[in-house]
Amino acid sequence: MKLYAGIDIGSTTGKAALLDAEQNLLGTCIIPATERPEKTARLCLDQLLDSLDLDMLQIAFVTGTGYGRVRIPFANDNVSEITCHATGAKWLCPTIKTVIDIGGQDCKVMAVLPNGRVSDFAMNDKCAAGTGRFMDGQARAMGVRIDEFSDLSQAATAPARVSAQCSVFAESEVIALINGGTEVSDIVAGIHESIASRLVGLLKRIESLPDVTVTGGCAKNKGLISSLQDMSGLSIVQLQGDPQTVGAIGAAVLAHEQAGLASKGTARLLAVPSGANAI
Fold it and tell me: Are 137 and 165 members of one domain?
């Protein structure tokens, strides 16, 4: 059985996905990132193969994505996470036209064409505000677990105002709110509203059309998704499976596509160079 693998090496986690020749999704895997992208990639793929009782020799094509995509020595190709998240979301739900990816260190919004390609995008990569790392920092400041954020925010009665654009200043603002006696649930709700407002700002920079979905680990946070829906006026479509693996799934779909082109002699011969943001 021929397999097609997608590997997404992010700043905090590594993700892998496997498709068979008929484009059936066989499985996905998520592991914490190690100190080296190549190690993360190998561990993640090996864990996924072991869980499915499959072998590396069965893999016909590997596509890497994420910030560590050029550091995967066994990948046949590498593609930007913008393209892979759009491809994965469209593959999972063909009606998707806008994708919001909230990653560990940046966030992006993408306008997606009917063929799954990206027509326009906007991203915030200058500051951690609005990202997974931003929420992690605020969680530490409040002494709560990040997985408690969703339930806490939904219990809020008067969301606090967290206005700082910088994640460091926002943490100071959160500490001041705690010391001032503000309920933790209200602070968390305020953090969600702050992130949602940044995402709405990105959405206004492209032609964002329904259906809209959110990918990345933060998409699991129902409180954040609720704030985003309220502030944007959009209904967010929840994709099947774990939204954190959408980039890896998209990379696997592109691996299948590129393998088919390679058999016809028309595949891309060069991987995307380091630092490129190709679409």
Answer: yes
The count of domains in the chain is 2
Q: Two tokens at 36?
A: 């080296």
Q: Which residue(s) pair with 27 in the sheet?
A: 18
The answer to whether position 30 is within a domain reads yes
Measuring CA to CA, which residue among 33, 16, 178, 266 is closest to residue 170? Answer: 178
- What would the two tokens of residue 66 be? 């994420």
Distance CA 84, CA 101 (A): 11
pTM: 0.91
- Across the range 127-147, mean pLDDT stands at 84
Range(s) of the domain holding residue 252? 3-92+243-263
What is the rounded CA–CA span in Å between residue 148 and residue 145? 5
Same domain, 232 and 202: yes
Comparing C-alpha atoms, which of 134, 133, 148 is closest to residue 220? 148
CB 96 within 8 A of CB 76: no
Tell me whether residue 277 is in a domain. Answer: no
Q: What is the pLDDT of residues 180-202, one digit of tens each?
A: 999 999 999 999 999 999 999 99
222 shares a domain with 118: yes
d(CA 19, CA 241): 15
